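User: These chains co-purify. Model them together.
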Amino acid sequence: MSSFFAQDVPIAWYLLLSAVLFSLGVVGFLIKRNLITVFMSIELMLNAVNLTFVAFAWQWHAVKGQIFVFFVMMVAAAEAAVGLAIIIAVFRARATLAVDRIDLMKL
Amino acid sequence: MTGPLLFLPLIPLLPFLGFLLNGLLGRRLPKALVTTIGLAAPCASFLLVLHVAYLFWSGSLALPVVEPGAPAWISIGALHIDFGSVIDQLSLVMLLVVTGVGFLIHIYSVGYMHDDEGYARYFAYLNLFLFFMTVLVQAGNVLFMFVGWEGVGLASYLLIGFWFRKPSAANAGKKAFVVNRIGDFAFLIGIFLLLANFGTLTFSEIGANLSANPAWNGGVLNVIALCLLAGATGKSAQLPLYIWLPDAMEGPTPVSALIHAATMVTAGVYMISRMHVLFNHAPIALATVAVVGAATAFFAATMGLVQNDIKRVLAYSTISQLGYMFLGCGVAAYSAAIFHLMTHAFFKALLFLGAGSVIHALGGEQDMRKMGGLWKKMPVTFACMTAAVLAICGIFPFAGFFSKDAILYAAFLQGAGGVVLWIVGVVTALLTALYMFRLWYMTFLGEPRDAAHHPHATPASMAVPMVILGALSLCGGWIGIERFGSFLAPALGALHLDSRIPHLEIYLSIVAVLVALEGWLIADKYYRRRPGRPAQLAAAMPGAYKVLYNKYYVDEIYEAVFVKPLLEGSRWVLGVFVDKAIVGGAAWLLAGTSLLAGAILQRWQSGNLRSYAAWLAAGAAAVLLFIVVPWTTLLAGFGIHLGMAVH
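Assistant: Joint model of the two components:
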C-alpha cells in the first residue's frame, strides 16, 4: 500500500506542493487586509512546512520528522487559541479587523 | 645589617594610622578617644626618634643608618628606587624638631580647637601632615622625598582651608596649592635632570658620585641646583613665590605654628642642606640661594612693619627668617642654617602659639589695633611671648642670637659680596626688632584699646606647650654653633668659620645685638612713649606707607602679569576655541549624525504589520539567495577571486 505511493510519486512533487502552499501563505500574508485571513495564511505556511517534514520522514524512514509535525500541530493549535483571542480583543478595542488600521506597534 | 632595632618605618606610619582612625571613624568616636588617638601617634613617633637619638648618644649606634625599603618601588633596568630611609645627624635633628614641636602643638591644639565641630578632622589632618613630614625627612632618595614634599603640601592645603565655609580660607588654600605647584614643577624637572645625569636618585650615591669627580663643576649642575632652588622657594616661601604664606594664615593658628612656621616651610632649607654636595659643585646656584635669601629676608621684614593683623606680622617674619636660613645655605654654612632652623622652630612656633592664645582669649580678634594691655590678664602668654620676641630679635642669650649670629658671621667671611649680604642681614635684624617689638607693645602693653573684649584665661593644655617652647627659646641656642656644627659635620661637611682678624665674631655679634636693641628703642619710642608718631610718619610719607601696606603690590602685579593672561587665555583659547569649537563641535557632529540616521531609519518602523512582514520575507529571501547561489563560482567566472583559491 505504502509502496504504491513511494514508487509513483517522487519526493520532488511533495516538496514542490509544499513550496507552492508556502508561497501562497506568504503572499496571502502580505496582501490580505483582513486579520483573520492573515491568520489563516500563517496556518497555511505552517502546514506547508508540515508537509515537507512528513515527506522527508517517509523518504528517509525516520520517525523524527513525524514527531516534529506533531509538535508543530500542537503549537499551531495553541497559537490558534491565543491568536483568535487576541483578534477578538483587538476587534473589541478598535472595531475593525483591517490590518492597516491596527498600527499599535509604532513607537 | 645587624644593630639595635630602630623601628624607622613606624615613625611615619604611626601618625598615618592616627590619620586613618580619626579620619575614617573620628566623627563617630567620643571626643576623648579622638584626642587620645591624635596625641598618641605623634607622641609615639617622638619617643621612637628619642630612642634613636639616645642610642646614638650612648654610642651603641653608628650614623648614618641606611635602611633600604624592602620591596623596590620602581625597578626599571638599572634604575632602582625604594622606600628606603636614611637617619644621619641632619635627619635626626630635623626629626627631633618635627616630632617634638609637632607633639607640643598637638597638645596645644586640644585646648585651641576644643569647641570646633571639625575636631576629629583637624587631628586627622594634623597626623597626616606629620606622616608626610617624617617621610620627607627620612627619605633616602629624592623621589621618595618628593612624595613627602607633595604630601605636606596636601596637608597644608587641607589645613589652610580647614574652615572651608569661609571663602577667604578656601581661596587661601587654593592659592598655597597653586603657588607651590609652580615650585614643585621646577623641583620635578630637577629630579629628572638628576636622573639623566647621575642615573640614580639616592642621596648617598649622588654624593659619592660628586665626591669622586671633584672637577665636575657648574654646567648642568647649576641648572639642576637652580631647579631645586625654585622648588625650595615655593615650599619655603622665598622670593618670588612667597605670596602664599601670608594668606595661609587663614588656617587655625596651631596649624600656622606647626606647618607655616616651624616645620613644613623649612623643608626647602632641609632639601638644600640634604643636597649640599650638589650645591657646593654649583657656584652660580649657591650664590643665587644667598641672594634670594638676603633679599627675601629684607623685603619680608619691610612688609611686616606695617601689618595690623597679628598673624600676618608673624607670617612676614617667618618669610624673613627663612630668608636668613637660605642666606646661611647660600654661603655654604649649612649647619648654621639648620641651627637657625631649629631655634626658629622653637621661637616661631611659640610666637604663633602665643598669638593663638591671645586670639583665643579675645574670641577670634586678630587686629592688633584692638588689643593692648593684655600682660596683666595673660601673664603666662606674656612671659612666653617676651622670650620668643627676644629670641627672634637675636638678643643675648636667647636662642635666636646664636643661630642668627652664626649665619651673619659666615656671610661676612665670604669676601666683598658677603659683606653686602651681612649688611642686608643686619639691617633686616633692625627691622625684625622693630616689627616684633611693635607687635609686643601693641598687643601686651599700654591700655586696652577695645573695651568690648573680656579676655579669658588660657587652659593648661595651651599653657604647658608654650612654657616648654619658652624654655627652649631661651636655652635652645646655648649648645653653640661650634658644637652643633661639629655634630652635623659628618652629614653636612665641616663648617669653616675662621677669620684672620681675631675676635671678629664677637665684634660682629656685638654690632648685631646693638642694632637689634636700636630696633627695640625705635619701637619703644613709637609705640609706647609717642603713640601718635607712626600715624604722623605714615601721613608724612603716604607713598612709601601705601607701598609697604600693600606689600609692594606684588599680589596685584602677579595678578596682572600671570593670573589675568592665564585666565583670559584659558577663557578664550581653551574655553571658547578648544572646548566649545573643537571638543563641543565633535560632540555635536556625532550627535547630529546619529540624529540624522535615526530620522531616516525611523521611517522603517511604520507600525504597519504588512510592511514588517514584507521586510521579513525579503530578508528570508535574501538569506536563501545567499545560500543557494554559488557566489564563489559565479564571481570566478567574472575573474574575481574571493579569498581562497578556486580550483
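The longest strand of chain B covers residues 72-76.
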